[in-house]
Amino acid sequence: MTTPIAQPTTAQPTTAQPTTAQPSTAQPPTAQPPTALHGPAFAADPQTVYERLRRQGPVAPVEIAPGVGALLVTDYQAALDLLRDTDTYSKDSRAWQQTVPPDSPLLPVLGYRPTALFSDGETHARYRQVITDGLALLEPHLLQRRVAEVAHRLIGTFGATGTADLIADYARRLPVHVVTTWFGVPDEHRERLVAGIVGMIESTRQAVTAYADLVAVVTAMVAERRERPRHDLTSWFLTHPAGLDNDEVVRQITLTMIAGNEPTTNLIGNALRRLLTDARYAGSLFGGAMTAHQAIDEVLWHEPPLANLSAHYPRCDTVLHGRAIPAGSLVLVSYAAANSEAAPPADSPDTAGLRSGESAHLAWAAGPHACPARDPALLIAITAVEQLTSRIGDLELAEPADTLRWRPGPFHRALVRLPVRFTPLAG
Q: What 3-state DSSP class applies to 415?
């Protein structure tokens, strides 16, 4: 059984040959300084940054926090090759994290924990099975009904006022209500969980504290369920045949909560922004499922809620699509850059409905570490958009679209606020 780390370990080189098809010669090192993926300038216009990075080749050097470098994969095929190559690359970050300060705000996202996200091989399969088996218990029709109930209640809190911030009042509150219900989180702890999840991904100095508080809430809940099981996913994780210990259960639960809440919040917010700002949706806020589905599909292609992640670390010196990569280097996948390279234009007829063909967006990653919560996350997001637009048909932005601000940070694509006005709902 895997136990929580006490001392870092170093990833061991492997004698296996890389499975990724590689050019015969490595790209010479670039003389350009790493491109910053942090700060307000990047948050305001990431696509310009991605275009500049693509001109440097499929893999380019970036800075994800002051003084912390990484290599970013911006090419669609290179990203797929990396995500599928478990022989050359490891997900274990313990050796890398010794190269950054112990209080680095990146560690709540990238620092090793005994979870499916940071594990390889049999250990990864064991952890992932607990999560996928748990999510498989969620009946889609019951989940949709629960989302609709929460949406109705949230809309009721601001509907009579005629104004709202659709991020703080709706997109951020809805997924956490649903996800915490799965795990049986007491109502009084939901706000702490939201603060912990939001704070850890911001990559600020408060990130370490935020993640620690999130873990503290879940740890207390797991200890209580070990003694007094209930009919919820927390108890089910504890009794799964994989036999996880308490800390392993805590880590899989926090991973599932983060993956189920933060990206879904951003997906809802980004889809609502698209509905409110894209002229192609004018007058169609009553459009129903296809409108919601189309807006969400376009967001997943053009503004994925997690923009850059899928951290990998080469087990030995290697070459990826012409770029020499030293062993142990941090390599991230830019879903946003790879998607925008592979996707048709946002106003193309091909953006309507589901696509077919050789390419698919990478918003859910790919390979053995692809997001296991894709289906429930999509159901939550689509239902949330449908419920809001069916109840309030005259939503409009309360400030110019070009003044909307995006949260800074290298990992997510998320609005700070989405203020709207509308005709107040009758009580």
A: strand
Q: How distant, in Å, are the alpha carbons of 231, 331, 352, 360 from that of 342? A: 44, 20, 16, 8
* pLDDT digits 0-9 by tens, 169-194: 999 999 988 998 999 998 888 888 88
Average pLDDT over every residue of 109-115 = 95
pLDDT tens-digit readout, 208-221: 888 889 999 999 99
List, in order, residues 6 or more apart from 193 with CB less than 8 Å away: 176, 180, 185, 214, 217, 257, 261
Q: Which of 330, 307, 275, 298 is nearest to 107 (CA)?
A: 330
DSSP 3-state of 324: strand
Sheet of 163-165: strands edge to edge? 163-165, 419-421, 396-397
pLDDT at residue number 13: 36
227 burial via Cβ count (<10 Å: 0-12, 13-18, 19+):
exposed
Q: What share of the chain is helix, strand, coil (3-state, %, to 5)?
A: 50, 10, 40
Give the CA radius of gyration of the chain.
Answer: 21
- Please say whether the beta carbons of 313 and 90 come within 8 A: yes
**Distance of alpha carbon 96 from alpha carbon 89, whole angstroms:** 13
Q: Can you tell me the distance from the alpha carbon of 317 to that of 319, in angstroms, rounded to the nearest whole number? A: 7
Once rounded to an integer, what is the mean pLDDT over residues 348-358?
41
pLDDT tens per residue across span 238-264: 999 999 999 999 999 999 998 889 999
Decide if 84 contacts 366 (C-beta within 8 A): yes
Q: What's the maximum distance between 2 C-alpha atoms anywhere in the chain?
A: 69
What is the rounded distance in angstroms from the CA atom of residue 43 to the CA atom of residue 415? 10
Distances (CA, A) of 134 to 3, 118, 187: 21, 19, 21
Can you list the positions of beta strands (E) in 259-363? Answer: 308-314, 318-320, 323-325, 331-334
Residues 6 or more apart in contact with residue 37 via CB below 8 angstroms: 46, 49, 62, 63, 64, 72, 308, 410
Mean pLDDT within 375-400? 94
Strand positions, DSSP E, 342-427: 396-397, 419-421
Residue 421: helix, strand or coil by DSSP? strand
Side-chain half-sphere CA neighbours of 284 within 13 A: 18
> pLDDT at position 342, please?
62
On whether the CB atoms of residues 232 and 186 are closer than 8 A, the answer is: no
Q: Are 308 and 72 in contact (CB under 8 A)?
A: yes
